[in-house]
Amino acid sequence: MEQNEWILGELDRLFAEEKDFRRLALIKAAREIIGEQDKRIWQMEGELDGTLWSPKKWDE
Question: What's the whole-number average pLDDT of the chain?
């Protein structure tokens, strides 16, 4: 998502500069979590759109 571009850029910058393995692992994990959150938000938006536009639900 667009909102995460800044933080992903900062994480990339930190990853390139960091030497400590533990911190590199933490940065990588943070990137993965942000990516997973983006995916879940996208899926939930699609589910919401599908539910709102489903003719089956209009009579309820």
Answer: 88
Q: Dihedral sign for Cα 33, 35, 36, 37, please.
A: positive
Low-confidence ranges of the chain (pLDDT < 70): 1-2, 57-60
Domain count for the chain, please give it.
1
d(CA 55, CA 32): 37
Other C-beta atoms lying within 10 Å of the C-beta of residue 27: 19
Asked whether the beta carbons of 14 and 26 are under 8 A apart, the reply is no
Residue type, 17: E
Boundaries of domain holding 15: 2-58
